[in-house]
Design brief:
- The protein is built from ten helices and 15 strands.
- It has three domains: about 5-85, Winged helix-like DNA-binding domain superfamily/Winged helix DNA-binding domain (Arc Repressor Mutant, subunit A), CATH 1.10.10.10; about 90-160 and about 270-295, D-Maltodextrin-Binding Protein, domain 2 (3-Layer(aba) Sandwich), CATH 3.40.190; about 165-270, D-Maltodextrin-Binding Protein, domain 2 (3-Layer(aba) Sandwich).
- A hairpin with a 2-residue loop joins strand 9 (about 205-210) and strand 10.
- By secondary structure, it is of the alpha/beta class.
Length: about 300
């Protein structure tokens, strides 16, 4: 098979796996228009239409799906062969694709980028920000980072952070106007800021616990968003009560007097962040090195 033919097949597979020209182009490091031209060339050479395209979506035709089903095992075997060959050397090298929520990327990965690169210059990190719940196998990721409560059972998981508490907070001026809730049932008389899960679109039901008592409550208010900065700004500007993870930023805002905590004795803790990967594959040297970096373990490169 000639090189350009193989590149066309890889491009086609990338589009099918991501159901998007834009995401596939990002993965392959090219523009969407260039990728579209490659697919037109492949379809022209084969004389069949492989993809159905609209302005909003892309999906394989019946012929295209059968074509992909024949190609996918071949690519899987080729990737496995490459991984096995590199792993045999013990050298951390190649592209490492990580799917992570914005908070994990900002607080765990970003501060360690330089140190990781100095220790493992042959590893190229490809960090995809995703606050939804994506299938890392379908997305061709080496690993993902998620809170423990949102992990699938059939994965290998490595704890990155301790369990995290929840905090109900509001601006002092809001509490001065509306009063301080003494129990979760009081929230029905308050304006609350809702969190919408990215991907599913479901709205988070606030979870509370005190002793043996545990329950969820649906709240209402003037703002719902799937972006952390938006809901936090809503709380700071006095729109209502926000229920969020306890972290350094929230603690700092409380210390500055910009936010005030309420219902502290009702707020439970949830599992912290975990790095996870499929239990159907062994971690590569690059992934093991990345985990070591996130856990601040020995960063010296392994001997070749």
């Amino acid at each position: 098979m000639r090189g350009f033919e193989f590149a066309e097949l890889k491009a086609f597979a990338a589009i099918v796996e991501r159901a998007s020209f834009a995401r596939a182009a990002e993965h392959m490091g090219m523009s969407a228009s260039a990728l579209s031209q490659i697919i037109r060339q492949l379809e022209g050479r084969l004389g069949v239409q492989l993809l159905n395209r609209t302005t909003r979506s892309v999906a394989p035709t019946a012929i295209g799906q059968r074509f992909y089903d024949r190609l996918e095992p071949m690519f899987t075997e080729m990737n496995a062969a490459v991984v096995e060959a590199v792993a045999a050397t013990g050298r951390a090298a190649g592209v490492l694709r990580i799917n992570a929520p914005n908070q994990a990327a900002t607080k765990l990965i970003a501060p360690r980028l330089s140190r990781f690169h100095r220790a493992h210059p042959d590893v190229e990190l490809d960090i995809i920000i995703d606050d939804g719940i994506s299938d890392i196998v379908v997305g061709c990721f080496d690993a993902g980072i998620r809170i423990g409560a949102r992990l699938e059972k059939d994965v290998v998981a490595v704890r990155l952070t301790p369990d995290r508490g929840m905090m109900a907070v509001a601006a002092p001026d809001y509490l001065a106007r509306r009063g301080v809730p003494r129990s979760p049932s009081d929230l029905h008389d308050h304006a609350c800021i809702n969190w919408r899960f990215p991907g599913s679109g479901a709205i988070y039901r606030w979870e509370f616990a005190k002793g043996e008592e545990r329950f969820e409550i649906a709240v209402q208010g003037p703002l719902t968003s799937s972006t952390q900065e938006v809901v936090l700004q809503g709380a700071l500007q006095g729109l209502g009560i926000l229920y969020t993870y306890d972290d350094d930023r929230i603690a700092g805002l409380i210390e500055e007097g910009l936010l005030q905590r309420v219902l502290a004795d009702w707020s439970p803790a949830f599992p912290g962040l975990f790095l996870y990967y499929s239990n159907r594959r062994s971690p590569t040297p690059a992934l093991r090195a990345f985990v070591d970096c996130l856990l601040d373990r020995d960063m010296r490169p392994r001997s070749k």
